[in-house]
Design goal:
mainly alpha; 1% strand; single chain
Length: 309
């Protein structure tokens, strides 16, 4: 039970890191990206290939996973520069599926549907399972804390204010002299770094990755986490990730208590319970549990008209 609880906390940390990355892309810049799992897969495969096939240290693999995901994010943002709204969402979703199909078919590189196993973890061979899980949880907490601080500083920086201006009204930001395309590319790259690092950390924790892991449902979970926590708020992103993992795992114990349902029906019921629970949250907290703070300009009172002599 102890290993299970720690593993769920590690999973929540991975989700939180992804939600922070999505918060930059969607929450700050307003870019609807449904290809999160694609960048997650890029980071995971990059780190796995470097550490398993080339023997690089884990730290190098994780950093390379983040950098590679950022470069891919730059390419995707440039390709989709003229797209907005639903069109951007569809193209990014197609990008994620392209990555998964590529990983499935390019056996020479990714080992196809069999996946890559034996991905090293920090001191995995020297520690007991409980010790390894505890160490990895500490690593995840440290990484998420660093990412949270950086995203918070970014949010309150001039760069973050420009991103929110582009999100609220892109044309006004352009008229104000801001290079909208450049800021969008930078937002995509920065958010993709967090997604790639999350994928790399996931790979080194589970020691195995395969194309079937990187399905669009994971993107949906992260989007729900940000919606439930509060779009545009870093604290909400982390809280939403914890909430989603809690609902996903708590239903695992509730469903078996319901009689006369098959395992397949139980799995579908779990998804239904999670969906309904999050809908209830959004019904009463439309902007999330921790909504983004909205600053309001104070309009000074009208000055009295000058007296006429």
């Amino acid at each position: 039970m102890e290993n299970y609880l720690i593993a769920m906390c590690v999973t929540a940390g991975v989700y939180a890191l992804m939600a922070l990355g999505m918060n930059i892309i969607w929450g700050m810049a307003g870019l609807i990206n449904l290809g999160l799992v694609g960048f997650f897969a890029v980071g995971a495969y990059t780190s796995a290939l470097l550490t398993v096939k080339l023997g690089f240290p884990i730290v190098v693999g994780v950093i390379a996973g983040g950098i590679t995901a950022a470069l891919v994010g730059v390419v995707v943002s440039l390709v989709t520069a003229r797209l907005r709204g639903d069109y951007l969402a569809i193209v990014t979703l197609g990008f994620a599926e392209t990555i998964r199909v590529f990983a499935t078919n390019e056996i020479w590189l990714t080992n196809g549907s069999d996946g890559i196993s034996g991905i090293p973890g920090p001191f995995r061979g020297d520690l007991t399972p409980v010790q390894f899980n505890s160490l990895y949880l500490a690593i995840m907490v440290a990484v998420v804390t660093i990412a949270f601080v950086l995203v918070e500083r970014l949010s309150y920086s001039p760069f973050g204010r420009v991103l929110r201006a582009i999100r609220d009204d892109e044309q006004v930001a352009a008229v104000a002299g801001k290079q909208v395309l450049l800021y969008k590319v930078q937002a995509f790259a920065l958010g993709s770094v967090a997604l790639g690092v999350a994928g790399a950390l996931y790979a080194h924790y589970t020691s195995y990755i395969a194309p079937d892991i990187f399905v669009p449902l994971l993107t949906l979970y992260i989007k729900l986490a940000l919606l439930a926590g509060g779009v545009g708020n870093s604290k909400g992103a982390v809280l939403g990730a914890v909430v989603v993992v809690f609902f996903l795992e708590s239903t695992r114990f509730i469903v078996p208590l319901i009689p006369y349902i098959s395992p397949v029906q139980g799995a579908a019921l779990r998804e239904l319970i999670v969906s309904v629970s999050l809908l209830v949250i959004l019904r009463f907290r439309a902007r999330g549990l921790l909504p983004e703070a909205r600053s309001h300009l104070v309009v000074p009172a009208a000055l009295p008209a000058p007296a006429r002599g």
